[in-house]
Design a protein that fits this description.
mainly alpha, 4 helices, 0% strand
Length: 113
C-alpha cells in the first residue's frame, strides 16, 4: 500500500509541476487539472494513512513523517484554493507547497520500496 501511495503522490506532483509551469507562463490552468491534482493527493493521503494504521508496529517512522508532511502540504493546497478564488496564488506559496511534496516523496521512498 505504501507503494501505491507513493505513485499517487508522484502523479499528483507531476500535475502540480504542470500547473506551476502554466502559472509561471501566465497561462490559464484548466479547472480539471487543479481538481485532479487535489483529488489524487487526497487519495494518496488516504492510502498512506490506511497503510500506516494497518502496519501497526512495522510501520516506519519515515512513513508517518511522510504522512504528516503530505498532510501539511495538503492543507497548504487548500489555502491555495481559497486564495485562487480571489487572486492568482503567489509563487513563494506554490514553492512551499511543492517543497512539502518533494520532502514527502523523499521520506516515503525508502518505506515504499
Amino acid at each position: 500500500m505504501l507503494t501505491l501511495a507513493f505513485f499517487l503522490f508522484l502523479a499528483a506532483s507531476v500535475g502540480g509541476v504542470l500547473m506551476t509551469t502554466m502559472l509561471a507562463k501566465n497561462m490559464d490552468v484548466p479547472a480539471f487539472m487543479g481538481k485532479g491534482h487535489g483529488l489524487t493527493a487526497l487519495a494518496g493521503l488516504a492510502v498512506l494513512f490506511a497503510a500506516c494504521l494497518m502496519g501497526e508496529g512495522s510501520t516506519t517512522v519515515r512513513a508517518w513523517l511522510a504522512f504528516f508532511v503530505f498532510l501539511g502540504g495538503f492543507m497548504g493546497g487548500a489555502l491555495v484554493i481559497a486564495h485562487v478564488f480571489f487572486h492568482k496564488p503567489p509563487m513563494w506559496f506554490t514553492a512551499i507547497h511543492a517543497s512539502a511534496a518533494v520532502l514527502g516523496l523523499g521520506l516515503l521512498l525508502e518505506p515504499a520500496f
